[in-house]
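Can't attach files on this board, so I'm pasting raw text. These are the components:
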Amino acid sequence: MKKSRAHFPQIKSIAYEGTGSRNPLAFRHYNPDEIVDGRKMRDHLRFSVAYWHAFRGTGADPFGPGTIIRRWESGKDPISVAKARMDAAFEFFQKLGNPFWCFHDRDIAPEGRTLAETNRHLDRLVAHARQLQRATGVKLLWGTANLFSNRRYMCGAATNPDAHVFAYAAAQVKKALEVTQALGGAGYTFWGGREGYETLLNTNLKREQDHLAAFLHMAVDHAKSIGFKGQFYIEPKPKEPTKHQYDFDVASGVAFLRTYGLERHFKFNIETNHATLAGHTFQHEIEVAAAHGMLGSIDANAGDELLGWDTDQFNTNVKELTLAMVSILRAGGLGNGGLNFDAKLRRASIDPADLFHAHIGGMDAYALAFKTARRILADGRLTDFVKQRYASYDSGFGRDIARRRLGFRELNRLVLTKLGEPRPRSGKQEYLENLLNSYLHG
Ligand code: XUL
Ligand code: CO
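---
Top answer:
Structure tokens for the assembled complex are below.
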């Protein structure tokens, strides 16, 4: 650990200094040790850093190569570079104070010439990660496999028209699951990668979905056979990289999992920017998952409403996050999931300190949202309003409707003989928007 401390020499550990602080490298709202409902705030929010953005992102875009140059990337031997990068990452985690991290297999170790060589590289870096986890106390929130960057996966992995590619992907995920287990991962994520299509001219949609389900069943079976107890997540995204991704949004994910008998084994990892791309709010996706008892974890980021792609920005929109937090807390929290910053620096944010500013901002925004959401729920006016709105289903014929004890015939008779014309009642949206603002801004 001594050597690794040199990677961010200019930055000290980030402390909570409260809202009076003018120190940009301090938390103003996130106080990890503050006890809320008998638990530390760090254990409520379970922040995680995404290795792929924070330590593999370079600021590259379709118009130019990377702009973000890191000192530890300069070595010649790829394994030594991977180790130095990981040292830098764990120094960053320690200074930031995030209790968790997440990675793809290929983020942490380079591919070799064969799968066997790739696995050997991975084993060396996993051994290194295990040491660093032990030394710092940082834990793995979830692992995953990169089934989308290599050329072999250009037409998908589990949905590839070539069974050979399916088999290769299966071998890769087998190893990724074992590695996640070896590092004590609390979960494992399946994001769709290139599981989708560009054109139906060359695609058998039904077969591809059947194959994806077969793949996920194999993953469930393998996890069982090795005793991996972590939570499996599906991370929906409607498009990008493919024109149409099969795990379009939470609702289509629920339908897919139920159709193929997989619903007991999966929850959802909901990414804010993916919700935006699907034409939903973040809160909508959380509510749909919660309605099915399948809210798992969050990829905490933001998109740009003016752009049609995954911009993966750090989210500082406290209003959006407060509404999300209301829904998360109402659903009973994230359990073994967490808030993983699947977010990257802008291309021009090239200073090492920018990586801290980005995560501090995201953590503070979530902490403030968490506190505000708790106030909203404790105050109860919003909850009561919604409860009252549906009160007619709590008794009498309304309760009989909800319990499916009445049919059209009975209701028809009831309306004709007794109820007559309903009296419309205001939805009061503007009043509620003002109420929300009063919690946010006083
Ligand atoms: C891509 C994305 C992924 C997953 C993990 O849009 O969100 O980084 O979170 O594979
Ligand atoms: Co993500």
